[in-house]
Amino acid sequence: MRPEPLGILGGTFDPVHNAHLRLAEEATSQLRLSGVLWIPAGSPPHRSPPVASAADRLAMVRLATAGHPGWQVDDAEVMADAPSYTIHTLERLRSLRAEPLVLLMGADAFLGFTSWHRWQDILKLARVAVASRPGYAPQVSEGVATFHLEAGTVSSTEVRTRIESGEDIGGLLPAPVLEYIASHHLYRPD
């Protein structure tokens, strides 16, 4: 019998928020994943540098995922000095793990997927699964799966902006992450 696939969810998670958690939960359920491996990015080559430090982002992801059976955090990218490329992470994981890999992403990330470093090779190492939400079904090619994500998504940029302007963000973040941000004075203007 073939082992259940493992979901791979990478991102800067600056900060990790409830929409990330919902994406992982829905993917696990709909795609019948054995679990999700969360991979906070170190220096993503296609984005501006994260606002929070690598240590803070890693701590927040660990807090957000604690207590979820089957969810694990991989710190290899976030602790690396070099830029993080998905292909290198998948090559490393493929050498360590036997189960099929499913690379999870939101529709917004998928729009730029063909600009990723060695994107064709990514498709050889992992199945790609893209979250679709009401009113927005991404155009995917053969071999790329979709799963349904309810409305109510938010971006990390929006969360940071709300924190900086002093708006309430209580429903957007897991409580332990909210407490961590407050106690470490993250995303606040100087």
UniProtKB/TrEMBL annotation:
Pathway: Cofactor biosynthesis; NAD(+) biosynthesis; deamido-NAD(+) from nicotinate D-ribonucleotide: step 1/1
Keyword Chaperone among record annotations: no
Cytidyltransferase-like domain mapped to chain residues: 8-162
One MF term in the entry's GO annotations: ATP binding
Catalyzed reaction equations: nicotinate beta-D-ribonucleotide + ATP + H(+) = deamido-NAD(+) + diphosphate
Gene3D superfamilies: HUPs
Keyword set, alphabetical order: ATP-binding, NAD, Nucleotide-binding, Nucleotidyltransferase, Pyridine nucleotide biosynthesis, Transferase
Gene Ontology biological process: NAD+ biosynthetic process
SUPFAM superfamilies (alphabetical): Nucleotidylyl transferase
Family, similarity comment: Belongs to the NadD family.
Name by which UniProt lists this protein: Probable nicotinate-nucleotide adenylyltransferase
